[in-house]
Amino acid sequence: xxxxxxxxxxxxxxxxxxxxxxxxxxxxxxxxxxxxxxxxxxxxxxxxxxxxxxxxxxxxxxxxxxxxxxxxxxxxxxxxxxxxxxxxxxxxxxxxxxxxxxxxxxxxxxxxxxxxxxxxxxxxxxxxxxxxxxxxxxxxxxxxxxxxxxxxxxxxxxxxxxxxxxxxxxxx
Length: 172
Fold this sequence. Notes:
By secondary structure, the protein is mainly β.
């Protein structure tokens, strides 16, 4: 199904970016270290009989992005945009963008829950050795999408906040 492929692909991009940031390549023999904090909220739902994917990504070091896709056929509409202010403030979530010529609003609540989960990962990518250490913490969300006069609840089962140290070193 096309929406599954798009959602899976979008999740992979956000997850990779969440762990490594938008930063560029380290110069030879010059490791770069960033301290990154933010959230990753990925949701699905149905509005007016159409599949919905919404993603809110915050990274205090590299920026914030909202993405909304509506539909899983040849009439799919959506896109993404950067937002300098972010989306989560004092437990309230709000992200807006234009989708198919109309304003789409993702809004509701998100709160950190549960224990911090240690994160430690090492891998090579595009001529860099990347080491990521830090923590994730689950977010309990209650979000909805408002678009074209309709409101739909969103399921955001894998939402989390993160605090990471990312070290990138050239392998060439």
